[in-house]
Fold these 2 entries.
Entry 1:
Amino acid sequence: MSAVAEVPNRRVILKGHVTGFPSEDGMEIVSGMAHLAVPPGSAVLVLKNLYLSCDPYMRGLMTKHERPSSYAPDFIPGEVLVGYGVSKVVASGHPDFKFGDLVWGRTGWEEFTLIPNPESLFKINHTEIPLSYYTGVLGMSGLTAYIGLYDVAKAKKGDFVFVSAASGAVGQIVGQLAKLTGCYVVGSAGSDEKVNLLKTKFGFDDSFNYKKEQDLNSALQRYFPEGIDIYFDNVGGAMLEAVLLNMRVHGRITMCGMISQYNLEKHEGTRNLMNLISKRIRMEGFVVFDYFSEYHKFELEMAGYLMDGKIDYVEDITEGLDKAPAALIGLFTGCNVGKKLITLARE
Amino acid sequence: MSAVAEVPNRRVILKGHVTGFPSEDGMEIVSGMAHLAVPPGSAVLVLKNLYLSCDPYMRGLMTKHERPSSYAPDFIPGEVLVGYGVSKVVASGHPDFKFGDLVWGRTGWEEFTLIPNPESLFKINHTEIPLSYYTGVLGMSGLTAYIGLYDVAKAKKGDFVFVSAASGAVGQIVGQLAKLTGCYVVGSAGSDEKVNLLKTKFGFDDSFNYKKEQDLNSALQRYFPEGIDIYFDNVGGAMLEAVLLNMRVHGRITMCGMISQYNLEKHEGTRNLMNLISKRIRMEGFVVFDYFSEYHKFELEMAGYLMDGKIDYVEDITEGLDKAPAALIGLFTGCNVGKKLITLARE
């Protein structure tokens, strides 16, 4: 063991539990120190964080829950935020990891993080692909799209597929995978720029700006005159209500996220659930963390698509930890175009 | 072919499309005549109707829909209501049916009905069981319970099962099948008499009167401290909202009916759908008409349970066609205790 090096470590701290719309002021950047060594005999790692992923589910962890969430612990006021990121191993006490290894997985929103359970991390093998992609298309967002479309919605050739928040980290991949499967794919997004991207960059068959529609039901009737087989729901709320009216018999709704609801003091009720019965619809939620055992199969397939140019990918990158709180909050006003991530360092 | 006999035929007619709460006055009894013979060369049947089934789904068919329902045509003002019943063949032009055969299936709310598609009817073989049971436990209600519990909810030993409208035609069978499967079963109903029946007659582990509960969420927490694996939903509305808060991870919600909503001008919205994601819940609607191919397997199993005394069954019988409109409307005020049916004739 070399002498213990101590370096400055800047961190993003949650100041207090959040209700309603979150703000940058609810987080602060604090300075601390990190040890770049592991205690003797311990199997922990120290990571240098390179890229941090901004994900909508993180909003839920900012609220205090009476019953703990079943998939991730709530953030603790005064402590560092935790999310997914791409990192480099700078100290290892674990036999499977060595100095310099690149990994992705759960890490702190800070420059350096001590990882007590290195088994939860994935090693990065495809360094011919931009490293940052492991915060998204080759990481959690990509796996979410893949599992939600195939394992949950059982997409098959000829299905009519609708994706909301379609230019986002997950939506852009869902749409492109569905096209590769032979589906007819329409996406909605919240700006003309994003809507345009869906058609020109991601190859969706059609797309619309939901903010410009007076009546979402009419819009969906226009884009799906024969109805929708699969709805990949990232937003919940009014769009879900309208989609239920436009589903086909034996349709499937993949419940991936409800970003329209996360910042409301009280969630809205969803009407039209009677359609689940009359049209024999399956509506199913999932959490990607349950499917990490399928990651390597997915990674191989997705890396192939990326290298063959069959899947395009758009990132929206913020530079530096100082801007991390604003980047995260921006998800909820739809500021980002494509996958939102933060660069802390490039190597 | 014998000479054509013509007999009086009294019929229940829908006077006009219904919005809001239906009333007896929306139907009327009219007198007509029926021919007790089939046209030469035609494969139709004439049925004498013995028992008519009152089912909540019939309310939906009283409303005019912009888009036709995918499983049954709306009722037509001025024409006879159509539902499920037990009947005797009194004239047959079809090679598979002869005079005197007993059948169950879709028929008119009238004394005699001409059936143009006899293939849709099931012959009744187990005459050692009360004939009226083929309007319920051995007919559509029983098959609904069976399919909803096994095919949709995938019930298995040890599951915590909650059933609403639990003393009704479907609920009482769901609960007893779940008990036979080794589940823990709690039911809700709308009167102390019904709640008592669940425990004393049908062997539910516990039951409660939802009308006496201030807070359905607290009630469910009390009856399911470890949460609910399967919710067999016959009611929708506030109970569904409360159940979502109490589901366990990987729970299943069988969407069978929404009787709390059928008579509202505008359905209520359902909150708490976010639980579908965080708890990976599958919520799935079904229509029993899709599963008639499984009827004979079901009939054999259910007839066995009935003859062995493993399943009990409670009917609520109204005598005579004159009282049929009141009997049907009574479903929506919870008047019936057990399966509601109307007797027109006994043979």
Entry 2:
Amino acid sequence: MADAKFLSDIEIAQKNVMTHIKDIASKLSIDEDDIEMYGKYKAKLPLTLIDQSKIKKSNLILVTALTPTPAGEGKTTTSIGLTEGLNKIGKKATVVLREPSLGPVFGIKGGAAGGGYAQVVPMEDINLHFTGDFSAIEKANNLLSALIDNNIQNKTNNLGIDPRTIVWKRVMDMNDRSLRDITIGLGGTANGIPREDGFNITPASEVMAILCMAQSFKDLKEKLGNIFIGFTFDRTPIYARDLKAENAMAILLKDAIKPNLVQTLEGNPAIIHGGPFANIAQGTNTILATKMGLSISDYVVTEAGFGADLGAEKFLNIKCVSGNLKPKALVLVATIRALRHHGGASKEQYNDPNTERVSAGFANLEKHIENCKKFGLNPVVAINAFPSDSDDEIQLIQQKCAKMNVKAVLAKGFANGGEGMTDLAEAVVSEIEGGKNKFTPLYNWNLSIKEKIERIAKEIYGADGVDYSKQAIQDLRKIDTLGLQGLPVCMAKTQKSFSDNESLLARPTGFRINVREFEFATGAGFVIPILGKMMRMPGLPVIPASEHMFIDDNGKISGLS
Amino acid sequence: MADAKFLSDIEIAQKNVMTHIKDIASKLSIDEDDIEMYGKYKAKLPLTLIDQSKIKKSNLILVTALTPTPAGEGKTTTSIGLTEGLNKIGKKATVVLREPSLGPVFGIKGGAAGGGYAQVVPMEDINLHFTGDFSAIEKANNLLSALIDNNIQNKTNNLGIDPRTIVWKRVMDMNDRSLRDITIGLGGTANGIPREDGFNITPASEVMAILCMAQSFKDLKEKLGNIFIGFTFDRTPIYARDLKAENAMAILLKDAIKPNLVQTLEGNPAIIHGGPFANIAQGTNTILATKMGLSISDYVVTEAGFGADLGAEKFLNIKCVSGNLKPKALVLVATIRALRHHGGASKEQYNDPNTERVSAGFANLEKHIENCKKFGLNPVVAINAFPSDSDDEIQLIQQKCAKMNVKAVLAKGFANGGEGMTDLAEAVVSEIEGGKNKFTPLYNWNLSIKEKIERIAKEIYGADGVDYSKQAIQDLRKIDTLGLQGLPVCMAKTQKSFSDNESLLARPTGFRINVREFEFATGAGFVIPILGKMMRMPGLPVIPASEHMFIDDNGKISGLS
């Protein structure tokens, strides 16, 4: 399968012969009548298939990563490949992933359906509108916006919302920088009350975070009602329920709440559902999708955004606690390239073998391994293989990991699909069957917000302590007033460093972190300490990806990545 | 079935037992493998099912109406009911309709899937996201917007577009008046170039008009490339193709171009596809959906927005000429209520029987009948029955119609479904089998824009002539420069009167119409003379419909209309 080097992801995906989705369902003992097909290769799964007794017996595997380079280290590719590998060694495994956002498909990032011979298909559909979940989330978000501005506009039914306090923004799943900062309601009395506003990209919507945190349809509706909008002129907090918005919003999400079934290139089941930001939100698929996966197979491979300091921490402390999920194994994805980067290589030197740099860069991986153990989980390191990796570098990593009692396994899913992932699959299964992993969250939600942040900063980031800006101290008082002390914290920090300073690579020490301000997602149920400037609406590059896309008269696409 | 009075539309729809969509397809001799199911009750039909030889043999029936009251006279309900009636008398008939817009569902208007016992189902899905077509159109529209603003922002690749000349607006399928008039690109150099902009509701997007005019996927792409955006600083016109946007936009529309199959309450086929505005656009479903209907059944019932002076005129002169479609029959929907209105009844008097008013109001229907005959089509009048209609009033209409050699038939689809529509079905079939209808367009596209407008104004509206504002005269020069004289005209006029003055009811005479300005849809392929202020983004009412909506824990919806 050496042609992975020569074929683009979309070419590999298009050469693949897909299995009808009813046959994928059938392999999972799901009746054709129980799924809602969206064409021949996508289906929605009803929530009634979630089965608590099966969840308990199944094995949840989290795929996370070391501190990444800007290109990412291949968590999705590794998750898909590991699932192929598990099935290859005779285990019934399903991969459960986030849905890609449409906007970045036309920007720099491109889609997010894996790569090479470790992809989920139909790749084009997954990267485009898929089953309409993002669009439904967008509509629910923007209905609430329209209801807010309509309430301000009309004299009767008016709640007295102070337009200057509104924190709820509109969203659009498009890389559109011109919508970041806008003025709405212009043009006279018929067109609303003028005020500042802006659009975020759809994955940054709290509705997305809510959908991913919801335990049931009932819970979804309640969470939607709990969304904080702003204050009245006399400082009363206003929630979505005050606008009687939660039923209409839930109506718009009646199908979006159902997890989506697709397949991997090797015809194994993939559930793809929800895709919240990994900085201002939890960065992992819906709780319902994870539970669905656990209900229909013996092994579930899932992932969380960015490095383990962000993705795994939130996955374990927020999602697992909230959803009562107990991961049995943890895979830490590393690339030799990223280790060189942490060892001081410049971007131009990423592909140059250099054991000294890799050895120095290992400090980053070492800290992540230590962190995983703090959750009671001994990780397996997956070295996502690149052609430029040298044997010396790989052996070095394996030796250093072995000293920490951790297996480091070469993962060749990109080039070889499941065949290249059986070693990793065996290592993961052996870790689970060893039975030593006992998941424990890092903190108790009952701690104060400040205590929770301190815990994460010291234990996970390795910081000496936490400083708070004046704004953050004010915000903490607001959090108190609104009664949000018991919520978990969803850290919004750069993914490029353990610290909040993106230039500190490897394993920084002797630093403090700075909480600049807080946001809170009262619907989703977490408080967000903001440690830096967070991008919520990307832009397009000078030459947008759209310029190189092509679709022929029969609907065959090229140039999508 | 007297409970139609007591049950809401959604209650009737929910009590109905739907047939699996594969069985609906099977009745049409379409193989299950050839459709793309979206759940059990919706499917997309591939364009390969369109068959020119079958189209020629099938019978196209256009349902239009007299000049309506603000509530509308029930064209959709009549179209669906007539289809049930035709099937009841043994004819294979399909109804082909527009897709409802989501925004108005939360506003005053509500959904648009028929009413009473003449509905298409699943009503909730059709009125909500359906198969995602509107969302895809929205994304294609807004990708072009993002590409425009990105091009203005960046120095390299810059086309020199003058931001003040940009006519392309963003869209959102939401009633959101605060987005009508906005300023974008604020907040510093990273956030784009500040300029005035605004959002229209999605049905007002030219992408919607294009999808509805497209003859094939190839044609769609070409039309998308032809969208006019604005001028450069040196007055060169800029089109979407100059931004290399048409492929990416077409990729976003790859599924949206396929017509959607659903069913009527009585299990007959319904194709629902596309929904452009009836004022600034053509107000009728896609050409491809109409051709699909004609390819799979012997009779196709379809409709066009507003009264016959707008909907039928555009349907016949733009859509039929462009798509080479030849309607065999025309149904003019009238209500006694609307005739009372044209005869001088106030809104409070709409339900009071009054033969004098109905007799005076008949002037309106009379003019519409005369107009239909100008297209070579002798209409059948469908009196959409209301409980407040008196026998005297009905007989009066029937007698007056008979004098014009036109049958006027009581249509009871709302209360009785197909059973109440067999008389109308018989009358329509007899009109078709009579063979006297010979469709001829009113004008030749080769006439000048002014000649085309004059033709419509005098022949259809009954105006004495046409006046042009200074702006309109300037715009006509622009139309000349851009080489658009050969396009048909898509009149943007009030639907409340034959004239451009909405207070002139019945059959006004001695008036002239005023063209204030022109717009042009170079992608869709028509020039739009604007005769009044056109609403392109509705608002929500003081108490939005969303406040009364409810969805239970099992996903059952109430309060949707």
